[in-house]
Each structure stands twice: as C-alpha cells, then as structure tokens.
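I have been asked to look over a protein record a colleague put together. This is what I was given:
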Amino acid sequence: MKKQFDLQVEEHVDLLQKVAFQSLSGIKVSEIKELRRLFNQDKREYFNKTKLKYIILLGLLGLEYSGTDKVEEILFSYITHLITELPIDNFNDNNEIHFN
C-alpha cells in the first residue's frame, strides 16, 4: 500500500527537495540559459523540457507515495524557481551545476 505524500512532514519536503536537486544536478549553464529563454518566450516548450528533467524521479517517487499530482505541481514550481533564480553570471556556458 502506498503512503500518502504529505508536505507537512519534514521528511517528505526534504525528499521533494532531493528530487529537485537530483533532477537538475549536472545541468550546464547553457541549458539553464535556454530554459530561461523558453520560460519567457514559449511556456509549453519550457514545460516539456523541464518535465523531462524530473519525470523519471517523480515516477519512482510515485511507486511509494500517492498524491503525486499535487507533488508534481510543487516540484515543477520549485525547479522553475531554481532555474530562474540561480546565479549563473560568473560561469561560462559549459560549466555544470551540481547540487548536494
């Protein structure tokens, strides 16, 4: 039986953050720039490319937890925040970003 994913539980929030970080870990600065451009110019394409970053990890989360539709909304929002707010000005396009 699947457990209910509950964002009031700190362990679940930490798990969601881990999925977000794993989804973007290793992303190149050039990819972030492209995603930012799409975010401003083509929301549908932005959504599709961003979803490809996390869909497998979200699927694995869904094997153990229920309620993943709301979780996906929050995960997408969090990843979008990271993509749009991550300071990348001092890096060249080939640098990779890694999260711990």
